[in-house]
Amino acid sequence: MASNLKLKGNWNILKGKIKEKYGDLTDDDLTYVEGQEDQLLGRIQKRTGEAEDAIKKEFFEEN
């Protein structure tokens, strides 16, 4: 994944929305370090089986 992803909005708010939508994700899955959006996207995708494009569209903005 070699894209420039940026999270949309405040991470704490987004984290709540992601946990609400994908209840199977753990806090460890959602550990976020600035600049590692691709890794976060990969973890969400792996745990949920959701399409990469759908996750990007909802929680990330591509630059």
UniProtKB/TrEMBL annotation:
Residues 6-57 form the CsbD-like domain. InterPro entries: CsbD (IPR008462), UPF0337_stress_rsp (IPR050423), YjbJ_sf (IPR036629). It comes from the Bacteria. Belongs to the UPF0337 (CsbD) family. This is Uncharacterized conserved protein YjbJ, UPF0337 family. It comes from Algoriphagus aquimarinus.
